[in-house]
Specification:
single chain; 421 residues; alpha/beta; Aldehyde Dehydrogenase, Chain A, domain 1; Aldehyde Dehydrogenase, Chain A, domain 2; 2 domains; 6-stranded parallel sheet; 14 helices; 41% helix
């Protein structure tokens, strides 16, 4: 449902719907996802028309300074994005349902069995900006993992979000027993403030957008927040790095999608790397603005700009990254496996890479089917958050009338033995 006048009623109905999702079969979930993918394909031209309206409106917002060029660039849907979106849904269908899986089972005493079992988180609020394909990615993952969602997109994607939501609701209405209230879309800015107050009903908030948006949400809610405020990613070029590899990896990490959160922003070069000047010449001659001696090292450029800094040693590079990075994704380019492992162990980031582009930090590329975002948290999920990241767990205890008093008085003894399931 689209509900803009009474967000509380929308959330209450979604909270009721989440309980129905918990018992929905994997077959029903996959049926819903297949119908959504077919609906997108069937309405493709209409979706492009609505996206074009958003682009026209966003162009005015860009000219007035209301949105950035990076935000504008994320808005456009094309055949490639549409293809990837549909493929992403099919990938989610092929993935195993992550809920109701027994992680382990333990016999506390004879006939007293404890199981640790995965379960959906419940009702998740997703607040996102710019990218219209996010709505479909998140909805797909939520359906497969058995979570209800409240979706709030930016006004710059209102028309595209509306048509996607209509496609989703039409598909869900064709699946017997599927609660349509499990997927909701709201629009007004005031809806964000109301959502953030509803910790009684909403189990998790996932923001996807600017630093300003993420920080605002973290500062204004009691609901747990999963996400990252910025993507300040580093590549450290060690003294023994292969120059050709360094050029290719850095170029890809900066230019393949400059406004992405996993785009490299700072390149640290070991002081004894002999081809620093060749590397700088390559970058500048390929349209990348290289900044040396900047006033700050915590800037997310989201453009074909990067900071380049000479660094004394591997240890100094690790210290720099842990101090100035955003704990998102960082890479070392080196032929020294021992030093690579030291870097991967000591850099405190969700993704730590050896000799590969930081742009690999993505749920689709990790084989998650899609992602709801990338988390730099150390609780809940970390890194690209796919299906597994949308599940928590519960403990199920099975017995035959056992009581604690018997164990307290020594009449019975625990033996805590793991068992096969």
């Amino acid at each position: 449902m689209i509900q803009t006048d009474n967000i509380l009623e929308t959330v209450k109905k979604a909270s009721i719907a989440k309980a129905k999702l918990f018992s929905l079969s994997e077959e029903k979930k996959d049926e819903a996802l297949m119908l959504i993918s077919q609906g997108i394909e069937r309405n493709k031209e209409k979706i492009f028309e609505e996206n074009k309206k958003d682009l026209e409106n966003a162009k005015k917002m860009l000219e007035s300074g209301e949105i950035t060029k990076a935000t504008y660039d994320r808005l456009k849907l094309d055949e490639n994005k549409m293809r990837d979106m549909i493929k992403g849904i099919h990938d989610v269908i092929r993935l195993e349902d992550p809920s109701n899986k027994v992680l382990w089972a333990k016999e506390l005493d004879e006939g007293l069995i404890l199981k640790k079992v995965t379960c959906p988180i419940g009702l998740i609020g997703i607040i996102f900006e710019a990218r219209p394909d996010v709505l479909i990615q998140i909805t797909s993952l939520a359906i497969k993992s058995g979570n209800a969602v409240i979706l709030k997109g930016g006004k710059e994607t209102n028309n595209t979000n509306k048509i996607f939501f209509e496609v989703v609701q039409e598909a869900l209405s064709e699946v017997e027993g599927f609660p349509k209230e499990a997927v909701n879309l709201v629009f007004s800015h005031q809806d964000i403030n109301e959502l953030l107050k509803l910790d009684e009903y909403i189990d998790l908030i996932i923001p996807r957008g600017s630093n300003k948006l993420v920080n605002y949400i973290k500062e204004n809610t009691k609901i747990p927040v999963l996400g990252h405020a910025s993507g300040i990613c580093h590549i450290f070029v060690n003294k023994d790095a292969d120059i050709k590899m360094a050029k290719n990896v850095i170029y890809d990490a900066k230019t393949q999608y400059p406004s992405a959160c996993n785009s490299v922003e700072t390149v640290l070069v070991h002081k004894n790397f002999e081809k620093t000047e060749e590397l700088k010449e390559f970058l500048t001659s390929n349209g990348i603005k290289v900044i040396e001696n900047p006033e700050r090292f915590d800037i997310e450029y989201s453009d074909k700009i990067l900071t380049l800094k000479p660094i004394e040693s591997l240890e100094a590079a690790i210290d720099h990254i842990n101090k100035y990075g955003s704990h998102h994704t960082d890479c070392i380019i080196t032929e020294n496996k021992k030093e690579a492992e030291e870097f991967l162990s000591k850099v405190d980031s969700a993704g730590v890479y050896h000799n590969v582009s930081t742009r690999f930090a993505d749920g689709f590329r990790y084989g998650f089917g899609a992602e709801v975002g990338i988390s730099t948290n150390k609780t809940l999920a970390r890194g690209p958050v796919g299906l597994d990241g949308l599940c928590a767990y519960k403990y199920k205890l099975y017995g035959h009338g056992e009581i604690v008093d018997d164990y307290s008085k020594g009449k019975k003894q625990f033996h805590h033995k793991f068992i096969q399931q």
